[in-house]
Amino acid sequence: MTHTTAAEHHHTTPVWEGIKTVKFAIWLFLASEIMFFAGLIVAYISIRYSDPNWLLASELLSVPLVALNTFILIFSSVTMVLAFDSAEQGDLQKSRYLLLATAILGIVFLSIQGFEWSDLMHEGIQASTNLFGSTFYTLTGFHGAHVAIGVIWVLSVTAKAFRGGYAEDHLGIELAGLYWHFVDLVWIILFTIIYLI
Amino acid sequence: MSTATPTAATHKDYRYAPVSFWRRYVFSTDHKIIGVQFLFSSLLFFIVGGLIALLMRTQLAWPWQEIPVLGQYIYGSTGNILSPEGYPALVTMHGTIMIFFFIIPVLSGAFGNFLIPLMVGAQDMAFPRLNMLSYWFMVPAFLVMIFGFFVEGGTAAAGWTSYVPLSALPDMVPGSGMGQTMWIISLLLVGTASTMGAINYITTIVMLRAKGMHMFRLPMTIWALFITAILVLLATPVLTSALLLLLFDRTIGTTFFLPEGGGNPLMWQHLFWFYSHPAVYIMILPAMGMASDIISCFARKPLFGYKPMVFSIMAIAGLGFIVWGHHMFQSGMNPVLGITFMTSTMMIALPSAIKTFNWLGTLWQGQIHLTAPMLNALAFVSTFVIGGLSGVFAAATPVDIFLHDTYWIVGHIHYVLFGGSLFGVFGAIQYWFPKMFGRMMNETWGKVHFILTFVSFNLVFFPMFILGAYGMPRRIADPYNYTFLSNLQGTNQFMTISAYVLALSQVILFVNFFVSLYRGRKAADNPWQANTLEWTTTSPPPLENFHALPVVYRGPYEYSSPEVEEDWLPQNRELVPAPAD
User: Fold this and answer.
1) Partner-chain residue, chosen from B128, B202, B255, that has the shortest CB–CB distance to A2
2) pTM for the full model?
């Protein structure tokens, strides 16, 4: 079978020394993700500013709670960085627990967001109620789906780490980390434009 | 696909234990097989899209007539006659199939897959399994789109642009129901497949080039496919987000694009064209690249102005992201924006003109061999000039007030897409057929196909400019309802008869293709005496392309070099003493 061979054969003579093929591809993937969220965000901004009576999120939702949630997600990025750094330092045990902490923080974030969704639905705002509902559920929903995928990814990396993986090559942790930081960064933008301004 | 590479299975240099038929030809991770899979499926959709075009042309020539013999199979439920709501469905499916299932997959999917690893000197794509996955996202897309024909209300009828409200309100017209939902799902799958392909192509070109293959030694085909992949990577996700919003409007009751709930229908147009204008370049740039390689090879001269050609592709792609509003001059968009979009659009004429002059400069005083691939490449250049220049007219806002949504626009897009991209594809098929299948296509029939196609193409599409100038709108089933258009029926009948000739001419290509697959003359490794790396391996290439990984010493266009006796100098041939770079 050819699938593992092509890249490996070339590893002996990489054109760009030091950048792994998979890492390069993840960056490209993230570029396409940026454009995906850009489409959604532009739609949101355009809809919001053409409606003079736009409902502010702060009137419906608890901004302090979401701020806490934002802090949790940013903190999970810190644990992710530390996990990669520990693996690089050779402290695999520390790295494993930091990866686990990252995944748990991601789950906490999703739980708080789920609570927020159900709260909003109890207030009678569905996706079909008004454009605030449409845009709110769409933007936070797609972001939440990305966090969920990230949690699954980080958990699988964690499981591999606990089984003794990444002793030599930490690329797997780094790739999951790139995606995780990207999802975190998207949230900081969404938090700003949905809740703060 | 068992016919795809008849000799590969018996090739002596097969480095791996034979795998099952399914793994080799159906769920293959070999970029050459995947390329051929894309080629066959997109050619199938070329036939489907072409037949739909003939139905439209028939209606425009003899509106509301019973279709003899075939009518009962096509329009059986409506008395063998096209129904009024059937015509927009034909328009929609012709555009959708030709763009998303033929031109884009045949250029990036078929030739991108087949050529990129071979021309950069790699053994396969960077991610062969992702490559396979990309094709297997196309297959359900094909099926869902075809399935749309058989759901209640029939297939989507809102045009390939699917403007709201037609596409957003399920009970607007018959095709706005389930058919439109199928259309959206199908396009989401196509978009995912394209994005996977783009990531793979860019990574392969950047990371897996052979030793000595600097970026500025890449053949123009690869440069074009590279820039195209960047366009796909950055533009397609925006279409995906727009399609998802449209899907939500249709299914869960959001109102992103519906004014009744405060949404904005123009936003769909903005998001759609933000993808679909770059998509126009996704549909033409690879053809430009392949035509450049073919022209240089058969003029036996270096490509004139290699670096300006590369920078022109970059400029076209970059400007392509800031011109989408020129599709919307009449939409009610802020007219001030119109001026900006007009200016940026007209600037695209500059890099396009640089490319055209460089093709002519390549031909100048060359030893031109008028082979079938060369004739098609020359047709590409000449019809692209007409298509491009007509685009400059439509880009000018004052002129576009008159031309918008008329047959002028239809003529323009077909001169670019049929005249440009499709002649490029015809040339590329005949040029790389020996490398794909190890046999030559028949040259004489190739020329017959070319002459008939070129003449009938112009007879079908040039009158469209005249009809458009008369004010005949596009997308209407019966223009003769309007008195001022009733005298255009004769011209339309002439175009329709030419369209039949054009369609029949394609039979020659298909027969030539399939007969050559089995009976064609055995191809040498380098039948065109070309320089690029794919010609340095066997025809067809072995499983991992090269018997030994090539080392590159020079650019791809060293034809008629004074350094050697022959008039070609392959990229991987080492001259002793080694020449200066």
Assistant:
1) B128
2) 0.93
